[in-house]
Amino acid sequence: MTEKTLLRGSIAPARAGDPWAQLSRTTGIVGLSALVLIFTPIIAVSTLGEPPFTATTAEAHAFLVKANVSWARMANAVLTVAAIALVWFVVGLSLLLTRAEGSPPWRSVAALVTGVLLPAHMLLDASWGAAAYRGADIEPGLARYAFDIGNLGFANAWVAMGSFAVACGWVVLRTRVLGRLLGWWAIVAGTGLVLARFAWTTGAWYAPYFLFWIWVVVVSIQLIRERLRWGGQP
Question: Please, are residues 35 and 215 in contact by the beta-carbon 8 Å criterion?
């Protein structure tokens, strides 16, 4: 038996039982799962003719009336499950960044705290679901109010998403744990999300919003592949 074979045999069991490697893989899998659970119901509900943020009272009312179908309510329930999956992703990624950042891990903690605000919004904001549940029984003015509350809460969540992305990107840039590209990518997307809040009724939010979620996909794949670098070393 060669020295190389002996070395491989001594390293493999430790690698397989490495808790940080397990956390990396689990976080990546949960991240991709959360993405599927978020966008599948969102895309499905949008087929009902979801109007823009500037919708009229009649448009908002008509949309919420059409949303009073069983499969749309099921889609709303799926979003609550997606919110919990997103919490797991945020916690896992923040822990990995905490290890990379070292002490004091204030940027990683900031990413954790602001990152969980988005799933918290998904769990607590029931304005659309409550209005759709009553369907045609709800008054048009009240339907418009529920529609606007949901959209404004969504816009406020962009700031939390932006803070999470900037904090993550800052740690990545300082530690190179995921490479410089993903660090700058997160900062650009996060800054764009924060700025989009000041023009929330326009379509300016689309670019940073989808840039953020594509970043989540890429990071999740990197985590599954265990492409993290601790102290500059893989």
Answer: no
Name the one residue in this structure whose structure tokens are 């500037």: 54
Q: Which of 78, 112, 74 is nearest to 93 (CA)?
A: 112
In a domain, 56, yes or no: yes
Compute the mean pLDDT over every residue in the chain, rounded to the nearest whole number: 89
* Inside any domain, residue 230: no
* Predicted structure pTM score: 0.88
Residue 5 lies in a domain: no
Distance between CA atoms of residues 215 and 162, nearest Å: 12
CA distances in angstroms from 119 to 34, 153, 180, listed in the order given: 10, 12, 27
Closest CA to 227 of 100, 58, 80: 100
pLDDT in tens, 35-45: 999 999 999 99
